[in-house]
């Protein structure tokens, strides 16, 4: 997984556990693609201050993930939902009764929505 994308996901899971300033800096940098210099100018602080907050915030996000593992569980669940979806797509629905075909199609729809929304 791309590091920037991973940090962005970690921010989604644990961002509210950071200080308001750390979250703001991390959000501007990882979700809005601001450089450290641009963030420093916008917030009226030094580039070093931005760097220190970003570094501390990233370390905290990684620490939360190592203790709670929410991102890895999320990725695991998404992968499982996609696998189930692929298995269901391999079924030959023409061989099923109309009742069972309708049930399988409903399950496929639910799994597809689950995989897309995770």
Summarize the structure.
With 118 residues, the chain is an all-alpha fold. It contains six helices and no strands. The protein is elongated.
SSE layout and pairing:
Layout: H1 3-14, H2 20-31, H3 36-43, H4 47-68, H5 70-89, H6 98-117
Helix pairs in contact: 1-2, 1-4, 2-4, 3-4, 5-6
Distance between the termini: 16 Å
Main sheet makeup: none
Query: Percent of residues in beta strands?
Result: under 5%
Order of helices and strands: HHHHHH
- Estimated structural class: mainly alpha
The number of helical runs is 6
Fraction of residues in H or I helices: over 70%
Overall average pLDDT: 92
Poorly predicted sequence stretches spanning 5 or more consecutive residues = none
How many whole angstroms does the radius of gyration measure? 21 Å
- Can you tell me the CATH topology of the largest domain? Arc Repressor Mutant, subunit A
CATH homologous superfamily annotation of the largest domain? Winged helix-like DNA-binding domain superfamily/Winged helix DNA-binding domain
